[in-house]
């Protein structure tokens, strides 16, 4: 039991040095374990944003439609084109009369 209690100054300094190194190691370990969780969340959030941006950038610009719906869309486009042509020629005609 007497061997556990250091009696000379060198032994006391050695025990204090070992205790300090262990304490600093535990503090460093604690700080390292806490910090990656915060950065992991930031990286995860950044990954989600980039993933979403890539998904929408690469997604096709055209929609696959059934034959009936495709014909209906073509008819709507033709009606819209005809209406635009009619109104543009009507405004030109009105301008010429003035």
Description:
With about 100 residues, this protein is mainly α. The protein is about 85% helix and about 0% strand. It contains two helices and no strands. The chain has helices at about 10-60, 65-95. The longest helix is centred in the middle third of the chain and has 50 residues, at about 10-60. The model has no long low-confidence stretch (mean pLDDT about 75).
Describe the protein's topology.
Layout: H1 9-58, H2 67-97
Quick tags:
single chain, 98 residues, mainly alpha, 2 domains, 83% helix, rod-shaped
Major sheet characteristics = none
SS element count, helices:
2
Tell how many strands the DSSP assignment holds.
0
| CA(first)-CA(last) distance | 117 Å
Radius of gyration: 39 Å
What is the chain-wise order of helices and strands? Answer: HH
* Share in β-strands: under 5%
Low-confidence stretches: none
Helix content: over 70%
Question: Mean of the pLDDT scores?
Answer: 77
> What would you call the shape?
rod-shaped
Decide which structural class fits the backbone.
Answer: mainly alpha
Number of domains: 2
């Amino acid at each position: 039991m007497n061997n556990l209690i250091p009696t000379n100054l060198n032994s006391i300094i050695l025990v204090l040095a070992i205790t300090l190194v262990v304490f600093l190691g535990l503090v460093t370990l604690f700080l390292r374990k806490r910090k990656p969780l915060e950065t992991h969340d930031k990286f995860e959030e950044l990954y989600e944003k980039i993933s979403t941006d890539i998904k929408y950038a690469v997604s096709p610009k055209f929609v696959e439609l059934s034959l009936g719906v495709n014909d209906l869309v073509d008819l709507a486009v033709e009606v819209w084109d005809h209406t635009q042509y009619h109104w543009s020629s009507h405004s030109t005609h009105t301008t010429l009369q003035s």
